[in-house]
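testing teh design pipeline on a random one, pls ignore if ur not involved
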């Protein structure tokens, strides 16, 4: 494959590190030209030394200075910082592709900058599509770029869709592992700790997405992501719990054929697919052995215990800026849970209550969406205080 120049937004995160592992395994196929990180300067320094990118960005000026002091004076890497720095890396002239792997709403503007400068996007930051799916898809069309999903479910759907015509698709089925609390009763969910919630049974991921997987909000965000990526009616996007995480998702066609993509749960598989599309890399990763999988099971999600999935469907059904409100409130609530300020079932309550208090706003432009995100953070902080005080028995 022809050498591709890539920039990675969020290189110090779980996805970012896996992208660099893939890039390091195929030095003839990929050159890393840009990196961005938040605050993990020690790891970023190692990455700069290993890949010598042209430019790196960090969250704050102080972090930029710390990194500069750690690198040799001879280093060719330009160091920038903040939102502007992220956008500079995202639009680096030398890059062919940008991997969007910052966590949360902070990923939106750099991803937009990359699209507007004509880069193909390998998208892990699902929040970009949750917040501004309609506008982002318009930008993707306008700038003639490819948007390739890294999420394993969406990678599976993209691959399954290649088996037929778009107009012959009848259903998309997203699989969900069900998270660490799949079999826990409603009462016990009040007592789970952040440590237990962070311990995902099949995937090793960042903190925020691990909590989202435990509440099933992650699947809700993915339904919204699929809605925008694949342009399928919401009523034709379904979720099935599949605890083994082997069948990554399925597409049903009008003739009744169901096409699925299977594989071991390792993010380097969908990352490789997005980075090398339409070619495939010989990853050398462990092969799937169906005889070693004792059993593949599927069940309906329990939306009584895990209400976040229903709330996410409601947000996209309402439309406009409501999915951005959902996302912002969820980020606030997840952070509060990780800080020990909220009980696990209250995360979803904060999100639903914040949505109920916010007025509908059309998603006319990115400024309006960012304003809705901002207002939702303020409102959800108020809701959070009220909910955290409530007796669990009231809920
Ligand atoms: N992990 C997975 O397996 C997986 C699978 C599918 C999709 N995704 C999606 O991929 C995205 C990244 O997930 P992750 O698990 O890799 O997250 P993560 O491990 O928490 O990494 C997040 C990355 O974003 C950076 N970052 C955080 N806040 C930032 C800010 N305000 N400004 C600039 N950079 C910031 C972090 O930098 P520092 O660490 O240096 O502070 C880090 O590089 C999420 O949208 C997630 O939903 C992840």
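output:
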């Amino acid at each position: 494959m022809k050498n591709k120049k890539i920039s990675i937004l969020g290189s110090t995160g779980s996805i970012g590190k896996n992208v660099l592992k893939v890039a390091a395994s195929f030095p003839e196929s990929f050159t890393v030209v840009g990196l961005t990180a938040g605050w993990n300067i020690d790891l970023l320094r190692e990455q700069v030394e290993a890949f010598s990118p042209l430019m790196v960005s960090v969250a704050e000026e102080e972090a930029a200075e710390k990194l500069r002091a750690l690198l040799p004076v001879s280093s060719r890497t330009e160091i920038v910082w903040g939102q502007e720095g992220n956008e500079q890396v995202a639009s680096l002239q030398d890059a062919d592709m940008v991997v969007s792997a910052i966590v949360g709403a902070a990923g939106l503007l750099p991803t937009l900058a990359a699209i507007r400068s004509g880069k193909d996007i390998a998208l892990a930051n699902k929040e970009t599509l949750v917040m501004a799916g309609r506008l982002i898809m318009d930008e993707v069309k306008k700038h003639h770029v490819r948007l390739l999903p890294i999420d394993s479910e969406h990678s599976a759907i993209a691959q399954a869709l290649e088996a037929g015509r778009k107009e012959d698709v009848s259903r998309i089925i997203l699989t969900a592992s069900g998270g660490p609390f799949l079999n826990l009763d409603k009462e016990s969910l009040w007592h789970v700790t952040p440590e237990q919630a962070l311990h995902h049974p099949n995937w090793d991921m960042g903190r925020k997405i691990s909590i989202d997987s435990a509440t099933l909000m992650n699947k809700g965000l993915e339904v919204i992501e699929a809605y925008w990526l694949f342009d399928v009616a919401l009523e034709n996007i379904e979720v099935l719990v599949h605890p083994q995480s082997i069948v990554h998702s399925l597409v049903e066609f009008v003739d009744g054929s169901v096409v699925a993509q299977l594989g071991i749960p390792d993010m380097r598989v969908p990352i490789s697919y997005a980075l090398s599309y339409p070619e495939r890399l010989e990853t050398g990763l462990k092969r799937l052995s169906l005889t070693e999988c004792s059993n593949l099971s599927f069940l309906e999600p329990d939306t009584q215990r895990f209400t976040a999935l229903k709330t996410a469907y409601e947000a996209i059904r309402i439309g406009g800026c409501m999915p951005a409100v959902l996302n912002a409130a969820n980020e606030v609530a997840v952070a509060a849970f990780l800080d020990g300020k909220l009980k696990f079932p209250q995360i979803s309550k904060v999100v639903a209550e914040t949505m109920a208090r916010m007025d509908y706003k059309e998603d006319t432009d990115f400024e309006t969406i960012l304003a809705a995100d901002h207002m939702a953070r303020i409102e959800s902080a108020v809701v959070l205080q009220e909910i955290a005080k409530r007796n669990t028995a009231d809920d």
